[in-house]
Amino acid sequence: VFIAQSRASGSHRDVEDEELTRIFVMIPKSYTEEDLREKFKMYGDIEYCSIIKNKTTGESKGLGYVRYLKPSQAARAIEECDRSYRAILAEPKNKSSDSFEHDYYGTNMRQEPRRNTLPFCVQPEFCTFEKNESRIQESVSKRLSVVSRFPFIQEQLFALFDLVPGLEYCDVQRDPYTNSGYAVIQYSTAASAIYAKYKLHGFEYPPGNRLTVIFLEDGSDSSE
């Protein structure tokens, strides 16, 4: 696990305290703080554990925090704990817990994609994007064209676009005259293609090289 410091963050110590040592997990509602500590103590030295409870009833919401002494311990816990805990790095404390819980539920309570997932997949902003008519006036389809100043490596480009669920195929071609990269990507649904374009158009891959992603006609009814 390789964790980068945000430019907007303060000193390294501040980042370590606020962002890199605290993880957020989904747990059975029967868990106590001692149960939580017992499950996660194998990954490192725990500073504290806390369980999020309903402010009115005092019942557990099935969510909790585990704070480690070192970022490496938090990273190890995220990598090695059972996937049912859906462990992620917790947001800094200056972000309200309610909004963080909402974002977390929105991302993690849906059916998991068949392979790897990016943190941005299936976020609420996607719904906003779909409803924004000014941004989907162009003809959409399940097929995308990807252009680059540099040639693509088939396996790498496939892995990049496969992070959005529903990838059916990735066909990489090369222009023998300009040595630029060109590929055709197709997803199983137009929704996946829209989201891939929304997130990967302008994405730097490799760093310094911005991808151009546009829709290609696939013969389907774009009004869907």
Automatic annotation (TrEMBL):
Q: Kindly give the PROSITE patterns that the UniProt entry links to this protein.
A: RRM
Q: Which residues form the RRM domain?
A: 21-95
Q: Name one Pfam family in it.
A: RRM_1
Please name the CDD domains in this protein's record. RRM2_RBM45, RRM3_RBM45
**Keyword list, A-Z:** RNA-binding
Record's InterPro entries?
Nucleotide-bd_a/b_plait_sf, RBD_domain_sf, RBM45_RRM2, RBM45_RRM3, RRM_dom
UniProt xrefs under Gene3D superfamilies:
3.30.70.330
Q: What is this protein called?
A: RBM45 protein
Organism this protein belongs to: Pitta sordida (Hooded pitta)
